[in-house]
Design a protein that fits this description.
Layout lengths: L4 H20 L18 H14 L2 H12 L9 H15 L4 H10 L5 E7 H5 L4 H14 L5 E7 L3 H12 L8 H23 L4 H6 L8 H24 L7 H12 L3 H9 L2
Antiparallel strand pairs: 1-2
Helix pairs in contact: 2-3, 2-4, 5-8, 9-11, 11-12
C-alpha cells in the first residue's frame, strides 16, 4: 500500500512547527490548573501568579511555577501565610524586570507616553539567547565596553514607537534561552532550597528567609546590588547556620536585621525612578 507524499510532507512540517515552537518557547498549551489541596485563602494568590506568568512568558512557564509551588503544598510547617508568601514572591521573581518586560508593560498602558531607561550594554545583550550573547559579551569585555551605559527609549505615543515595542516584547520567545534567565533560574532554585532547609532545621526562620526575595528588584545597579546583598546574607549567615558552621539559634531575627540594613538607599531607588 502506497502513501502519498503530501501526507508525509504535512506530517514533517507539522512536527517541525511544534519543534520550533518548543525551541523558542512559543507554546499554545492550556493554562496550568490551580494545584489541589491549597490552604484556605491562598487560591487567589496562586491564580494571580499563574496569570502573571502566562502574560510574562507562556503557559508552560506558568506550569513551572506551579510545579515549584507544589513542593511546599502539604509540607509540615507550611501554613496558608507561608505558602501565600512563597507563591506571591516567586511569581514576582519569575517575572523579573528585563528590557523585554518593560516593553510588554509599556504596550498595556492606556495613556500615551514615552520614557527612557538606563541599562548597561551587557544587561541588554544578556536578554538574547546565550549562543548569540556569549561571544558578543566576550568581545565587549575585551573592548572594556560591557559596562557602558545605554539609554533606551520606550514610547507608545506613535505608530513607530508601538511597532518597536511589539518587536521588543516579541523577544520573550527567546527569554528562556538567555543568560539572564539562566541566572534567575539558579537564584529561584537556591531560594526555594534555603526555604526547604529552614523548614527542616529552623522552621521559625522560614518567614524571614522567604522575605529575602524582596531584596532583589528592578534592573541596573539596584538589581545588581540587591543580588549581591542577598548572596552575602545567604553565604555568610543562612548556609553556614544550616551546615553547622555557625551557631545562630535565632536565625530569623538575624536575617531580618541584615535584610533591613542592606535595603537600597533612597538615593539609589530615586535614581532608578527618575529613569522612568
Amino acid at each position: 500500500m502506497s502513501v502519498g507524499t503530501g501526507g508525509v510532507d504535512d506530517g514533517i512540517l507539522s512536527s517541525l512547527r511544534y519543534l520550533f515552537a518548543d525551541i523558542i518557547g512559543d507554546d499554545d498549551d492550556t493554562p496550568p490548573c490551580v494545584p489541589e489541596n491549597l490552604p484556605e485563602g491562598t487560591e487567589a494568590v496562586v491564580r494571580a501568579g499563574i496569570d502573571r506568568l502566562i502574560d510574562y512568558q507562556s503557559p508552560s512557564y506558568a506550569q513551572l511555577y506551579v510545579d515549584r509551588l507544589c513542593r511546599f503544598i502539604g509540607k509540615p510547617g507550611v501554613d496558608a501565610t507561608l505558602l501565600g508568601e512563597i507563591a506571591r514572591l516567586m511569581a514576582v521573581r519569575m517575572s523579573y524586570e528585563d528590557p523585554i518586560r518593560i516593553a510588554q508593560l509599556k504596550l498595556t498602558e492606556q495613556e500615551s507616553s514615552g520614557d527612557r531607561r538606563k541599562f548597561r550594554i551587557d544587561e541588554l545583550i544578556g536578554c538574547l539567547p546565550a549562543v548569540v550573547a556569549e561571544p558578543v559579551l566576550d568581545v565587549l569585555d575585551w573592548l572594556n565596553w560591557a559596562r557602558a551605559p545605554v539609554s533606551v527609549k520606550y514610547s507608545n505615543a506613535n505608530r513607530w514607537g508601538i511597532r518597536r515595542l511589539r518587536i521588543e516584547a516579541g523577544l520573550k520567545r527567546w527569554r528562556r534561552f538567555s543568560i539572564r534567565y539562566r541566572k534567575e533560574r539558579v537564584w529561584v532554585e537556591r531560594w526555594l532550597h534555603m526555604i526547604d532547609r529552614s523548614l527542616g532545621k529552623q522552621p521559625q526562620a522560614a518567614p524571614a528567609i522567604i522575605q529575602t526575595a524582596s531584596m532583589i528588584e528592578g534592573y541596573g545597579d539596584v538589581y545588581r546590588q540587591g543580588m549581591a546583598d542577598w548572596n552575602a546574607i545567604i553565604d555568610s549567615l543562612v548556609k553556614p547556620t544550616f551546615d553547622g558552621a555557625l551557631a545562630l539559634t535565632d536565625l530569623g531575627s538575624v536575617v531580618t536585621e541584615a535584610r533591613a540594613a542592606a535595603m537600597p538607599r533612597p538615593a539609589a531607588v530615586l535614581a532608578q525612578a527618575q529613569d522612568r
